[in-house]
Write a structure and sequence with these properties.
single chain; alpha/beta; Rossmann fold; Dihydrodipicolinate Reductase, domain 2; 2 domains; 9-stranded mixed beta sheet; 15 strands; globular
Length: about 350
């Protein structure tokens, strides 16, 4: 177990990195020691705005030369894999924002590098620490609805030029696809809730507004190894408030967001039971549960144990996203997993 505070380096000083930094600052067992952004003046403003006692570095290579234990990586999607591999091979534990990769080659390379280096890792699927997600996972593990046979998780968030990362997320080069750029949150939740291996997927997409270089709206049907089925979707063209829909149906009940139907637990139940909680009902990362996620990661490092949300696990969420994209490219043809 490491003694003293973990020293953290922040790479990228955009919108989400502020949420990362604020969560790191709330950990009594960590301190931010260095910051890098390709725009050095932006990195300096980041340090000053947050009141950090951190050095600003000129390059990512210089950042890795710092005496730090952890590198927290955000920045545009196309730098995540390269920086994650470099940080891991430099012996640094890594927090990597989603998506961790934009191709299966990158996905495998990052997974293998982290394993080879023997460092701890965690991926920005912070939704797993949302209160309603925690409730759902706990009820599933307790068998509240019996054996689930259907899972549905949707990410609906209208994207437009007011979004801070619009100029790059809308492109095929960096945004890559609706599932990889943001729908991966729903895909990861589908996997986490089911606890199962996906073996086949079929998907379709469209681009209703023609504002994005890839299909902005995607729906996929997933078959799991047990025979259970699932559905996931990502809608960027929707004109509505942000929604993260969750429906899980079991042989003895059902879960719908913050509602429970369980004749197993409540044989006299006559209507949905609502569980008071915090739904994931905003796309604003300042509302997202990075603080408990980073607290969890700190404990994993200090106690020398792996996170359930590490790069090795996120590999499969990204693989499923790419299988969805492959099915769309092939006119909805079923794609078997694992991908070759």
């Amino acid at each position: 177990m490491k003694k003293g505070k973990l020293k953290v380096a922040i790479s990228g000083t955009g919108w989400v990195s502020t949420a990362h930094a604020q969560a790191w600052l709330k950990s009594p067992q960590a301190e931010i020691a260095a910051v890098f952004d390709p725009q050095q003046d932006k990195a300096q403003r980041f340090v000053e705005t947050l009141g950090l006692a951190a050095r600003v570095r000129d390059s990512f290579a210089d950042l890795l030369k710092e005496d730090v234990d952890v590198v927290s990586i955000s920045g545009p999607h196309d730098v995540h894999t390269e920086q994650g591999i470099a940080a891991a091979l430099a012996g640094k534990h890594v927090f990597i924002e989603k998506p961790i990769c934009l191709s299966m080659e990158e996905n495998r390379a990052l997974r293998d590098a982290v394993k080879q280096a023997g460092v701890k890792s965690i991926v920005g699927f912070e939704a797993r620490w949302n209160a309603s997600f925690q409730n759902i996972k706990s009820m599933l593990d307790a068998g509240a609805i019996g054996k689930p046979f259907y899972y549905e998780v949707d990410y609906w968030n209208g994207m437009n030029p007011t979004y801070s990362g619009w100029n790059w997320i809308r492109t095929s080069k960096i945004g890559r696809s609706a599932m990889l750029s943001a729908g991966c949150h729903a895909v990861d939740a589908l996997r986490w809730f089911s606890g199962e291996e996906a073996v086949e997927v079929s998907a379709f997409g469209n681009n209703a507004r023609q504002m994005i270089e890839y299909d902005a709206n995607v729906v996929a049907i997933v078959r799991f190894r047990s025979g259970a089925i699932g559905k996931t979707s990502a809608l960027f063209d929707c004109n509505m408030p942000y929604a993260f829909n969750i429906d899980i149906i079991g042989l003895e009940g059902a879960l719908r967001d913050d509602r429970l139907w369980s004749r197993k637990l409540f044989p006299g139940q006559t209507g949905w039971a609502t569980v008071p909680t915090q739904l994931l009902d905003s796309g604003d990362v300042s509302h997202h549960p990075y603080e408990p996620q980073i607290a969890h990661f700190v404990q994993c490092i200090l106690e020398d144990r792996e996170s359930h949300c590490n790069v090795a696990d996120a590999y499969y969420s990204h693989e499923l996203c790419m299988a969805i994209d492959r099915s769309i490219e092939q006119g909805g043809r079923p794609i078997r997993l694992p991908l070759t």
